[in-house]
Design a protein that fits this description.
Layout (H helix, E strand, L loop, with lengths): L1 E6 L6 H10 L3 E4 H11 L1 H10 L4 E2 L4 E2 L1 H10 L1 H28 L4 E5 L14 E6 L2 H9 L6 H10 L3 H7 L2 E4 L4 H11 L11
Parallel strand pairs: 1-5, 1-6, 2-5, 6-7
Antiparallel strand pairs: 3-4
Helix pairs in contact: 1-9, 2-5, 4-5
């Protein structure tokens, strides 16, 4: 079974690429979704965060306020690193369970959607890596349409990520996401040839 990593800087089109891969019948592991689930459902994670930062707990919903927690992590590097050290082992375990399940199901290819793939060393667990890419002005337009986003926050996020240029150099293939879904799909289909797993390169 081939394990394909999917990455790219913020606003480069990972979510679109992941949805198109799913249309091909390929299972995709969503790292961001896993983190959200941990913050919603994992009692140990909730207990640690509630104890460390009670101001990020919503008494009305009895849940972690992700916006407050995200703002705190944005302002304080120590908080961000603590959260990464807390959450990443759980995400890694979830990835292993996902891969093992797909292997038992006889999958030929799986995709791991991991925004910080190179930053966390997850590329070492992949047989190949896709990096999605778009021009900088399109990236900025996409990101600025998101709630709670501004220029300062975008600049800080990009500073914490490896440069897009480095990701493109290290990836096995760079997939454009600014020319329409059909073009993106065609490039992805060439790379992830689910009928012939031995010929997955362009």
């Amino acid at each position: 079974m081939k394990i394909i990593g999917l990455t790219g800087s913020i606003g480069m089109g990972k979510s679109t690429a992941a949805s198109l891969v799913r249309l091909m019948g390929v299972a995709v592991f969503d790292s961001d979704c896993t983190v959200h689930d941990l913050l919603e459902c994992n009692k140990q994670v909730i207990r640690v965060i509630h104890s460390a930062w009670p101001e990020c707990w919503s008494g009305q919903t009895c849940r972690i306020d992700r916006q407050k927690l995200g703002a705190l992590a944005f302002q304080d590097e120590t908080v961000r690193l603590f959260l990464e050290n807390l959450l990443h082992p759980y995400v890694w375990e979830a990835q292993k369970r996902f891969v093992a399940h797909q292997r038992r199901m006889g999958a030929k290819i799986v995709v791991l959607d991991i925004p910080l793939l190179y930053e966390t060393g997850a590329d070492r667990r992949c047989d190949a890596v896709i990096c999605v890419d778009a021009p900088g002005f399109i990236q900025r337009q996409r990101v600025m349409r998101r709630g709670q986003m501004n220029e300062e926050k975008l600049t800080a996020i990009l500073a914490r990520q490896k440069p897009q240029s480095e990701k493109k150099k290290r990836a096995d293939v760079v997939i454009p996401t600014s020319l329409g879904r059909r073009v993106t799909y065609r490039h992805l289909r060439k790379f992830i040839n689910i009928n012939s797993p031995k010929s997955y390169r362009l």
